[in-house]
Amino acid sequence: MIAFIQENQQLFSLAMALLCIVVFLWVLQYVLIHYGKPALSLISRGELWLRGHIARLPLITRLQDKYPVLFGFIAKRFARGHFSGLILTVLTLLNVYILAVFAGLVEDVVEADSIVTTDLFVSQHMSVLRESGIIDIFVLITSLGSTPVTCLIVVLTAILCMVVRRPYVIIGLLVSTIGSTAFTFVNKMVFQRARPVDILLHEHTYSFPSGHATVSIALYGFLGYMAIRFSSRFVRQVRLLSLAVLLCVLIGLSRIVLNEHYLSDVLGGFLVGSLWLIIAISVTEWLTARGKINWHMSWSKGQISLVWLGVIMVFVATLIYANMYQFPLLG
């Protein structure tokens, strides 16, 4: 056993990474299902107590009397019960944080910081797997992030939204996918980073950030958000979240295993996808608050069958694309 591990260190490391991801998501899912609602309730009560305590402080009272307009604005930003309050504030702060992290990652890549050394180390180790049978699995996974497959998913999702009479959901879908794709294209042109030397599936675009990693978050993340919003059961929502995260991670990991991108490219793609996903969710929630979208509906058997038909079509399209355009590149 030890000899096998020593001979297949890269494959063993990859298997351990996958196992850690699955275990982490399983533990997270278990914790959220069993302790999520009580924890949210506790946080909510704590937030109300803290807000009341701060409001009663003498200093805050004097400042509130002196600057009523400013404190009125702040109060609205942290108010519950409507989208433009606490929800929008949290989403905005989260996007600011993501932008700051992305800027830091860009600086590290441009200045050839330690992340670049890690990129080269990981790329060299992944190149050893080019003859492994596991490559075929990751080719199929990476095909889920290809342009033809993602365009098909967008079209099918738009059709589904029209069928269930929720057309305004399409706006958020397009904001997430088109916005992230355009942002990624501009960044590729700006940084013009070359792809890894031992690339398996020859690409003609630049490397940073990864388009597949971006679209995995922007598209599949938004699909996960849609499924969660349409679902009324908390347990199902948590499982849908875990599934969406796992799919996004696998697509990003496939770009590293196939040496299509460096690790920092994938991380950058995840950040860009998250940025536009949050923007799309904000737009969709704003439309919901204005009464344009009603997430509460009873799904008929025909509508459920349409969803599964779409899943099957995407699966078949992925197989066709991989066999016609991806596997031949492996030689």
Automatic annotation (TrEMBL):
The record places domain Phosphatidic acid phosphatase type 2/haloperoxidase at 171-281
Recorded catalytic activity of this chain's protein: di-trans,octa-cis-undecaprenyl diphosphate + H2O = di-trans,octa-cis-undecaprenyl phosphate + phosphate + H(+)
Q: Where does the record place a coiled coil?
A: none
Q: Where does the secretion signal sit in this chain?
A: none
Parts of the chain that traverse the membrane: 12-33, 86-106, 137-161, 168-186, 206-228, 240-258, 264-283, 304-322
For this protein, the Enzyme Commission number is: 3.6.1.27
Name the InterPro entries on file: PAP2/HPO, PAP2/HPO_sf
- What is the species of this protein? Psychrobacter pocilloporae
Question: Sorted alphabetically, which keywords does the UniProt record give?
Answer: Membrane, Transmembrane, Transmembrane helix
Q: What is this protein called?
A: undecaprenyl-diphosphate phosphatase
Which Pfam families did the record assign? PAP2 (PF01569)
